[in-house]
Design a protein that fits this description.
This protein is α/β, with parallel strands linked by helices. Helix content is about 30%, strand content about 20%. It has a single domain, classed as Alpha-Beta Complex (Protein-Tyrosine Phosphatase, Chain A), CATH 3.90.190.10. A five-stranded mixed β-sheet has the order 1-2-5-3-4, covered by helices on one side. The longest helix has 14 residues.
Length: about 150
């Protein structure tokens, strides 16, 4: 497979292009995945309890709905790994609805990709979902998430 075949197709539902060109898919797990898209090669689930297993490599961050990750250091490490893997794989970030926690995590990936932390929520709202990042504390979490 070529590098392009390993990546998400831009323009498909939930696919966010980061400034570096990395493509990441955000999704709500309560909705079926895009039927025209291949499975992810790596997924990060942001849920309050352990998700069911999936047929691709995935990790779980304990992250209750409308809140922040229970272990922020572990969340940062997993999001950094997701950002790295998005360079040549199909990375999916998913929570229940695909907006609050997923949007927050995508904004953190944008910070890792070079978007200033104070602009990352706006970037994700413009390019992924205008309702992404639902709570004031999720916005603060992104503003405090540094690339270094």
């Amino acid at each position: 497979m070529t590098s392009e075949e390993q990546r998400w197709q831009e323009g498909r539902p939930g696919v966010l292009r980061l400034p570096s060109g990395r493509l990441v898919r955000g999704r709500g797990l309560r909705r079926p995945p895009d039927p025209g898209a291949p499975n992810p090669t790596y997924g990060v689930h942001l849920l309050g309890r352990r998700p069911p297993s999936v047929p691709w490599e995935s990790r779980w961050i304990r992250w209750p709905d409308f809140r922040l990750p229970a272990d922020r250091a572990a969340a940062r490490a997993l999001l950094a790994e997701a950002w790295e893997r998005a360079a040549d794989g199909r990375v999916e970030i998913a929570c229940g609805g695909g907006r609050g926690r997923t949007g927050t995590a995508l904004a953190c990936l944008a910070v890792l990709d070079g978007v200033p932390a104070g602009e990352a929520v706006g970037y994700v709202r413009e390019h992924y979902d205008r309702h992404a990042v639902e709570t004031p504390w999720q916005k603060r979490y992104v503003r405090g998430f540094t690339a270094g």
